Amino acid sequence: MKLRPEVVMAMAILKAQQEGKPPNIGEISRSLHNLQFAGIEIGEVVVEHVPKERVPEGYYSEDADRFVKCVTSLGAGEGRFVGSDEFKIFDAGILLCTKTILEGLRDNPSKVRRLSTAMRYDLHSLYADVALRSLRV
């Protein structure tokens, strides 16, 4: 079974949160590129190399952009700010991303664990995070 691209993008968003950085589409796109380059199966995701004047990270993925728009349209985040590809994610968005990763773990545990290792994302924090955030949402 293939790993759903949404799991990868959700993990990239939560990794940024874990590191205390505002998530942004360029960074998510760069993570997707790095995973593809490392041979990690991330599904049917297209990542383009773009001029750094357009996107500072040098990569853009319409799939990542679409995922972020979906999260923000659900009211779980706030759209991009003018002149930036950063966006704000609310507790409901973090919970949505967490649940997406947990569904991926249920459906394809070995690939999600391999993905988390490649992204240096701590999967153990998911369970506590779900419990704490679900109390506030």
Strand and helix layout:
Layout lengths: L4 H14 L6 H13 L10 E2 L9 E2 L1 H12 L3 E2 L9 E2 L1 H17 L1 H11 L5 H12 L1
Antiparallel strand pairs: 1-2, 3-4
* DSSP helix fraction: 55-70%
Number of strands: 4
Instruction: Specify the structural class.
Output: mainly alpha
Let me know the largest β-sheet. 2 strands, antiparallel
Shape: globular
Radius of gyration: 14 Å
Number of helices: 6
Order of helices and strands: HHEEHEEHHH
State the distance separating the first and last CA atoms: 32 Å
Mean pLDDT over the residues = 81
Portion of residues in beta strands equals 5-15%
Core attributes:
137 residues; mainly alpha; 6 helices; globular
What does this structure look like?
With 137 residues, this protein is mainly alpha-helical. The chain has 6 helices and 4 strands, in the order ααββαββααα. The chain has helices at 5-18, 25-37, 62-73, 91-107, 109-119, 125-136; strands spanning 48-49, 59-60, 77-78, 88-89. The strands form 2 sheets. Strands 1-2 form a two-stranded antiparallel ribbon.
